[in-house]
Amino acid sequence: MQTTPDQAPATRGRYFEELEVGDVFVSPCRTITRADIVNFACMSGDFNAPHVDDEFCRQQPYGEVLAHGWMIFGIAAGLTFQTGFQHGRVVAMLGLDRWDIHHPVKSGDTLHVRITIQAKRPTSKPGFGVIHFEREVINQRGEVVQSMLVPNLFLRKPAQTAATA
């Protein structure tokens, strides 16, 4: 199954059993603003020159202020949520298996996320399963700017629902 940025998912809040390895979801788009970058610097306390110092940045190969990597990671999580398949079913993020930054993100870049289920397994605790999601953050030029493999704990279908489905 695949959804695109202009399609709403067929159903919202999918259980572990309703998601399969290879399923792909594509989030809506979001444009990064200078205000986003400044606000993240204030919130995180990360005032490193690449994020706030225009003069410093003009002398670097990238030429202008860059978005914080963690800010883009967080935005990717929010865009993933907006696809709808996690609503009321994701219990927790369990870690970060891999995170790569491929290209800088600047004010004015418009991003979306392509989410692909890479693996899934039930847990030893009844009612839960682990799903590993590959998230690719893609800019308006079609470049993957970040990619990450994120395991999440999901709810399984309640026993009475699974028995009657």
Q: Could you give the topology of this structure?
A:
Elements: E1 24-26, E2 30-31, H1 34-44, H2 49-52, H3 54-58, H4 69-82, E3 90-93, E4 98-101, E5 110-122, E6 128-138, E7 144-155, H5 159-164
Antiparallel strand pairs: 1-5, 2-5, 3-7, 4-7, 5-6, 6-7
Plain-language structure description:
With 165 residues, this protein is of the alpha+beta class. The chain has 5 helices and 7 strands, in the order ββααααβββββα. Strands 1, 2, 3, 4, 5, 6 and 7 form a 7-stranded antiparallel β-sheet that branches. A hairpin with a 5-residue loop joins β5 and β6 (128-138). The mean pLDDT is 92.
Task: Compose a concise summary of this entry.
The chain has 165 residues and is α+β, with helices and mostly antiparallel strands. It is 24% helix and 30% strand. It has a single domain (16-164), classed as Thiol Ester Dehydrase, Chain A.
Computed structural class:
alpha+beta
Number of helices: 5
Briefly note the CATH topology name: Thiol Ester Dehydrase, Chain A
Strand content: 25-35%
Number of domains: 1
| Beta strands, count | 7
Terminal CA distance: 20 Å
In quaternary terms, these chains amount to single chain
Shape verdict: elongated
Q: What is the fourth-level CATH superfamily?
A: Hotdog Thioesterase
Helix-strand string: EEHHHHEEEEEH
Helix percentage: 10-25%
Low-confidence segments:
none
Overall mean pLDDT: 92
Rg, Cα atoms, Å = 18 Å
Largest sheet: 7 strands, antiparallel
Please give the CATH class: Alpha Beta
